[in-house]
Structures are given as C-alpha cells and as structure tokens.
Amino acid sequence: MALPKQSEDFPAWYQEVVKQAELAEPSLARGTMVIKPYGYAIWEAIQRAVDDRIKATGHQNLYFPLFIPYRLLEKEAEHVEGFAPEVAVVTHAGGKELEEPLVIRPTSETLIWDTYAKWIQSYRDLPLLYNQWANVVRWELRPRLFLRTTEFLWQEGHTAHETEGEAVAETLRIVDEVYRDAIESVLAIPVRDGRKSAAERFAGAVETYTLEALMRDRKALQAGTSHYLGQNFARAYGVRFLGRDGEMEHAYATSWGVSTRLVGGVIMAHGDDRGLRLPPRLAPIQAVVVPIYRTDEERGEVLRAAEQLVEGLSRVRAHVDDREELRPGFKFNDWELRGVPLRVELGPRDLAAGTATLVRRDTGEKEQASLERAGGRIDELLAEIQEALFADARRFLDDHTFRPESYDELRGLLEDPGGFVVAPWCGSEECETTVKTDTKATIRYLTRERRPVDGRCIVDGRPAREEAAWAVAY
After folding, report:
1. Which of 24, 150, 305, 471 could bridge across to 220 with cysteines, CB 3.0–4.6 Å?
2. Are the C-beta atoms of residues 342 and 359 closer than 8 Å to each other?
3. In a domain, 323, yes or no
4. pLDDT in tens, 173-189
C-alpha cells in the first residue's frame, strides 16, 4: 500500500509508516500501544545510547514501584496540581475498595523523595545519582502512537545534592553530555537547547532545561528535559542532612527524562515519502543483502555468496533477505519502508563480475563495489549516511528558524511555513498566552542563561526582557 505524501497529509503519512513498517499498533485500552519487535529494537538502540552515557557520568540504575500512595502526592502541592488531569488512580483491588487510593506513577519524584528521606542523613551520603528505566501512565486526551500515549516507556533520573551549584551543574550535564550527545550523534537529530518559560516548566521545578527538535512538518518536538528542582521536594518530604558546618540542611534535587517519544522523533525528523530513513548508528539492521536469482542453481550460488559477504561484515548489523516467496522489487520497497540505511543487491551477473551493488537509502545513489572490498566500502558508506542525515536535518532546522520584525509576521511565519520563530519577549504570561491563543504556538525555549536583549516585545511593544523561540509543538 502506497504511503500518503508528507506534503499532503503528514499525520496520515506518520500513521501509515508506523503501521506498515510494523513499529507499533494501538492496543485495547484507550491510548495504549503494542510496540512491535522492529519498533522495540529501535527503542532498545536509543536505550543503549542513553544508558551508556548515563552510566559514564557516574549514575547507577535502580527501580521504584509502579504504585504510589496518594497521600505522597498531596505533600507537594504545585507538583500535584500540574499532574492532576493526567493521574490515574486505583481505588479498588482484591475485590474491595482500598483504604488508601494508589496512584499509577505519572512520574516518580514523590515516592523517590519520600524514600530518600530514609537514605540521606549526612553530607557524606551525597550525592545520590540514580536513574530508572520504567513505564509511566498519564491519561492522554489526544493519543498518537509513540508521541503521546496513556502508557509509555522512559528513563527518569532523580539525584540529590549537597549544594545548589552541584545540582544545577548536574541538570546541565545531563542535557549536554547525555541527551544532546545521544540525540545528535546516534539519532542524528539536531536540537536547540534552552530554558522553559514558567508556564511550560515542569510542575514543581525551579528551572527546566529542554532540547527541542524540528520535525519535517515544521512542528517542534520536545526531545528531552532536565529539571532543577531546588529544595522543593526535599522540604515537602523532609529530606534533611547534617552539613559540613554541623547545621541541618535540605538537599537539592534534579530530575530528567527521555521517552519512547524519541522513536516518533526519528520517524518524523528523517522520514520521506517512501518511509523511514534510519541513521546507521540507530538502525537495527544497517545493511540488508537482497539475493537476485531465477533458477534454483542460481539461488544456491547467490545465497552462499551473500552469507559469505555477511560473515565478513563483523562490525555491521547485516541481514540476508532469503524469503523465497517474494520478488526482489517487493523486498527493495519493503526495506526502504523500514529505513535500512544500505541495500546490497547480489545476483549472478554481480558474482560473475566479482562485484555487489550498494544502494543508499538516504539518497538512492547506487555504486558497484568489488566483493573483496565490499566490507570496507559498506563501513565507509554507513559513516557517510550517518553524517548526511544529520547535515540534512540541520539544514532543515536552520532553514526553518526565523526572526520576524512584527507580530503579524510572527503569526504568518508560524502558520506558513512553520518552524521556530525567535523574537524579543517582555516576559509576561499575558503575551505568551496571546501568541498561544492566536497561533497555537508555545514558547519552546528561552536562552539557557538569562541575558538582557535590546528591542521591544514582539507582542505588545514593551521593553523586552529576553529572547523566546515559539513553535507549534507535538
């Protein structure tokens, strides 16, 4: 079945890619999904990239329960208020009503900080640098596979620190050394970084730092966030420690996470009208060998050569498509849909010439390589494709970042062509709401460090306090 064109119906294109590439499908409970093996393999590759970097920065993995006593949420009022519309609560179990309702975790700050109160007694117990891989439940009003589902998979880091400076440094380290590095170098998605406005900030946070990506429909996607929580949760849950000066102090906190939303980001940042285009470092299959033959004798010769070729690709995740019932043309289209970075065509003529045909998924370019040198050339091409996909996405991001001169121009740019629209802002929630009401766009990021800007607010003309980037977002 042919895919819809991105330019004509991007949501339908996305839905069909997820379906036809066998990434995921809706499940029975509203807003939930079944992640199929190919989609889960992509998520596992994202997990590995992020987890390796989390551990390299000194963090350890652990696990906290799915159920949270409701009373814990009530201790941190701002946090509860922020999540109240999304919280799912268990009121009955074991055939009777529970004495105390249990929240199915929308995030774990409350339970973790209640536990940290038992683990932290002295400055010698700090820092706590922990992360967990888990599922969470948030009652989603408008679900979309991978992008917004009632239940999704993620990691959530929760750290405790002796000083404010250490906690802020931790928050930014995660953005730069973990998330940005994984997203740009493995997923090949360029990102903009900055702070969230107060209206967009994580509930209960002092500051939220974000990485924002741009999809091919020119909508923004929040790729990852890291939150400096100050002492809010430590005060709410009584996490105090004996300081170096002999005084009792409250710990400083951070939390941070990325989720299966990144799978959707890979689809929408790189995909084209033929389906996925997976970066080689992320792709479950980096090179697929498609044998071409007419007779049983040719089949045996070609398959033997294909297996020998794959055996020589020690550094490449390669696969021989030996499905007998399917024609080569169908296989070509199938693997293009699934986004395999490189296709290797091998037939009797290739064997006679001692060559193989290499076809890039990103550009469609073909070339001949000798069978003796094919392994080295495949390595080179995969590195080139990784760089090319990132460069292509970077150009798209830069080409769709605008600086309007007037509010009318800001509104027009957000409507068409869309993208990030960067302009001076007075800092008022009223102006932020005005833009959202008029355009559905929100402030995606502010500059990481607060600094004064010249000029006047793009919305109401008052003196600007800082620069903001607006976009319509998922």
Report:
1. 471
2. yes
3. yes
4. 999 999 999 999 999 99
CA distance 166 to 432: 32
Domain ranges, residue 410: 401-471
Q: How many domains does the chain have?
A: 3
Considering the domain architecture, whether residues 224 and 251 belong to the same structural domain is answered as yes
Q: Are residues 216 and 299 in the same domain?
A: no
* Six token digits for residue 414: 């957000």
Summarize pLDDT for 34-68 with one digit per residue, the tens. Answer: 999 999 999 999 999 999 999 999 999 999 999 99
Residues 292 and 236 in one domain: no
CB 227 within 8 A of CB 171: yes
- Two structure tokens written together for 304: 């033997």
Q: In this structure, is residue 388 part of a structural domain? A: no
Identify residue 25 by its one-letter amino acid code: E
Residue after which a domain boundary falls, among 270, 298, 333: 270
Planar angle of CA 266, 270, 273, nearest 5 degrees: 120
CA atoms in the 13 A half-sphere facing the CB of 95: 0
Domain boundary among 223, 241, 270: 270
Q: Can you give the C-alpha Rg of the chain in angstroms?
A: 25
Nearest to 424 by CA among 369, 463, 472: 463
The pLDDT tens digits of the residues spanning 357-371 come to 999 999 999 999 999
Helix/strand/coil for 402: strand
228 and 162 in a common domain: yes
Which residue carries 């070729």 as its tokens? 309
Vertex 406 angle, CA 402 and 407, to 5°:
95
Edge-to-edge strand ranges of the sheet holding 287-291: 318-320, 287-291, 342-346, 355-360, 366-370
Residue 372's Cβ-count burial label (10 Å; 0-12, 13-18, 19+) is: exposed
Tell whether 104 and 191 lie within a shared domain: yes
At residue 152, what are phi and psi to the nearest 5 degrees?
A: -145, 165
Classify residue 387: in a domain, yes or no.
no
Residues 102, 69 contacting (CB under 8 angstroms): yes
Cα 36–38–40 angle (5° rounding)? 65
